[in-house]
Each structure stands twice: as structure tokens, then as C-alpha cells.
Design goal:
7 helices, Rossmann fold, OB fold (Dihydrolipoamide Acetyltransferase, E2P), five-stranded parallel beta sheet
């Protein structure tokens, strides 16, 4: 097991990382913290194998953290700014993840770390210092990026009617509002619980719980008509017969 620590000054970003870490059997979450000094102390005490580290933080930037941590742990940088990529690789980071981070991209970074941290060197150990420990967020919701850098919106799965793909953006339709966020439909397909969510078209994911009627290749959710492509037709009908 690779002992992981997530460090970010934004709580929603930490919740996403904690969720992703909890989904991989070869990773274990030591904790999450918004304090890079606290994180550095844990690294120096030998409590951490892999740090998922934001670059832009108060008190201590991610690049400063890298220099102080040295070779005591491996680091995956997480940031919304691609211009820091070169600095990261010059400091021998495992990977560089751009926010919003998809689970698929996170998984690739974790596999790279696994190749670099095999066997007993990555075995779990108890904490020797207090840390803001957080397991995966409560089941039943996700956070999506808002219109500004530091804004994340909580979306309850139970509220989602359907999701429409708009190139590199998605439109999440709820009963009383619509949320547009920078993410692809493919990324959401890989992270949403299935069922009740099902991709039924290259441009649509639906919640099976919200379907009012299915008629041939058309799904009705409230007053919205959603097409079903031939690729997903058989799977849709198999699932609705099982419900």
C-alpha cells in the first residue's frame, strides 16, 4: 500500500482527491490538510510515501515544498495552471495533474507512483503527529468546478435529472437549476455511480431514477426528450427491465 497525503488550500479539491484515493486498492489515505507546513512535517517524519500537492498555496508554495521535502517522498502536483508543468518535471515529480482532475487521469498518475514505490517501502504506518484526517466524502454527491478558480459546487446525485455534453463542458440539469462546468462527458461517465446513471448517447447521461417514460429510442425526463443511440440501446433496455 502506498501511503498518500493530499495537500490543497481548497477543501472541495481535497474531497475529490480523498474520494479518488479511496477507490484504488493500492493506495491508502493518511490524511488531508490545507496546511503545507503540517504536511511537510509528516513527510519529514517518514509518515508519507506519496503527496498530491497543490502548487499555489499560502505560507509555502508547492515548488518550495518540493525543495524542502527532497527525496523523502514522491509528489504528484495538482493545479489549475499549466504554466508550472516544466518547473514540476524539473523537480522530478511523478506526474502533473490539471484541475479539474478526472478519475482516469488520476488513475494513470497513481499507476506511475506504484511503479516507483513497489513492495514494502510503501507499507502503511501509523501517524505520529496530528493531521486533519479525511476519508472519502459522504456517498451521494460530487463537487464540480464553478466559474471562478476557487469556486466548487456540491451536486447531490439524487438531484441530477440528466447531463448534457457540450464539447469540453457539461451541463448538469437539476430540478431548479442548470450547472455548467469544465469537464467532459467521458470523465463523468467514469466517475458517476452506475446505476443509476447511464450514458445513453454521445451527448447525454441520464439518471434511471428520473426517467418518466421510454418510447423506442427516446427517453422522457420531465418535459425533455433525450435520444438513445444504437450503441446504448440494448444496455438501457436491459437495465430498465431489471429495475
Amino acid at each position: 500500500m502506498i501511503r498518500c497525503l493530499a495537500v490543497d488550500d481548497e477543501a472541495p479539491a481535497l474531497a475529490i482527491l480523498a474520494d479518488y484515493i479511496g477507490q484504488l486498492p493500492f493506495l491508502t489515505l493518511v490524511g488531508t490538510t490545507t496546511n503545507p507546513i503540517e504536511a511537510l512535517t509528516l513527510v519529514q517524519q517518514g509518515q508519507v510515501d506519496l503527496v498530491f500537492l497543490d502548487i499555489q498555496m499560502p505560507k509555502l508554495t508547492g515548488l518550495q515544498f518540493l525543495k524542502l521535502a527532497g527525496t523523502r517522498c514522491k509528489v504528484v502536483l495538482t493545479t489549475a495552471y499549466p504554466e508550472f508543468a516544466l518547473d514540476g518535471y524539473e523537480n522530478d515529480v511523478v506526474d502533473y495533474l490539471l484541475k479539474p482532475i478526472s478519475f482516469e487521469r488520476f488513475f494513470k498518475a497513481a499507476q506511475k507512483a506504484l511503479a516507483l514505490l513497489p513492495g514494502p517501502a510503501a507499507s502503511p504506518a501509523p501517524l505520529a503527529a496530528p493531521v486533519s484526517v479525511a476519508g472519502p466524502p459522504a456517498a451521494g454527491h460530487m463537487f464540480v468546478k464553478g466559474e471562478s478558480k476557487n469556486k466548487f459546487l456540491r451536486v447531490n446525485y439524487a438531484d441530477i435529472l440528466y447531463i448534457e455534453g457540450l464539447s469540453n463542458y457539461v451541463s448538469i440539469h437539476l430540478p431548479t437549476q442548470r450547472i455548467v462546468t469544465y469537464q467532459t462527458l467521458k470523465e463523468l461517465t467514469e466517475t458517476l455511480p452506475q446505476p443509476p446513471f447511464l450514458r445513453v448517447h454521445k451527448s447525454f447521461i441520464v439518471s434511471l431514477d428520473k426517467i418518466r417514460m421510454v418510447d423506442g429510442n427516446t427517453i422522457y425526463i420531465l418535459d425533455k426528450e433525450i435520444p438513445v443511440s444504437d450503441t446504448y440501446h440494448e444496455q438501457l433496455y436491459r437495465l430498465i427491465r431489471e429495475v
